Amino acid sequence: MDWSKTKTIFIVVFLILDIFLLILFVQKYNDSQLETIGDLSTTERLAGENVTLGELPDVEDSRPYLNAEYYRFMSSDLQELEGQTATIREGQILESVLTEPVAIEDPENPEELNELLEDYVTNGGQYTFWEYDEEDNQLIYFQTFEGLTLYYNLNAQIAVQLNGNNEAISYEQTYLTSLEEFTEEQQLREPRSVLETFYDRNLIQPNSTAVDLQLGYYPLFVQETGGDTDEGITQVLTPTWKMTIENEDGSRNDLFMNAVDGSIYDMSQVDLDFEQLEEEDEIAE
């Protein structure tokens, strides 16, 4: 017997066996690590990725739904407007051209329009500045109710048009009227639950902080109450959370959630072009 060859064969066999056992060990270890990660609670994963709640303002724990009606502008509304020439489109859109343009120093913070809205726009004091739409060169205002913003509601906004010199030259307006609270209060999602839901949906990056939480309202559904005009159409609005997230690089983004049932709203898909209202009227006819 050639013991030299036999020894070599044994060495090779044991080496192959060792490699096989090592592969089994690594696979078992990786599987155990995956099981451990899967067993981690959302709270533990938040901590592991350094996602935190900052110092948020005090928020309500319950709030009712709202009911509102579409407002149809009338000729009497136009007669009360000064320093502008206004017309009404499709009953619910007021379009106005300012007699004198108003210079805006900073479109991101158009303080110059505060007085104009209060004194020269129908119910203008009920709107709050939301954003500067750089693409369309417009200042967007959302209607409010008892200090709460009506988020991304095409029937409750003002769009102020700027010219190339950053001057306000015209605006379009819609308005919700007869806003009333439902009798029953709705229990709202707590801040921690809101953060965890956004995180579970992969909407929050590691090393991020929730720096603000504000309550507002968003349309839940529209219902017809009779009649052939928009006077017979009402909206039901649900309490809605707007959570502001500050990312590791310092940038911020807002996330929106139905504060009652936890549904997440993608506001990037919401179209606030007033032409939609005209198209809806044409379809209805």
Automatic annotation (TrEMBL):
UniProt domain Regulatory protein YycH-like: residue ranges: 42-260
Entry keywords, A to Z: Membrane, Transmembrane, Transmembrane helix
Sequence intervals crossing the membrane: 6-26
InterPro entries attached to this UniProt entry: YycH/YycI_2, YycI-like
Any one Pfam family match given in the protein's UniProt record, by short name: YycI
Protein name per the record: Two-component system regulatory protein YycI
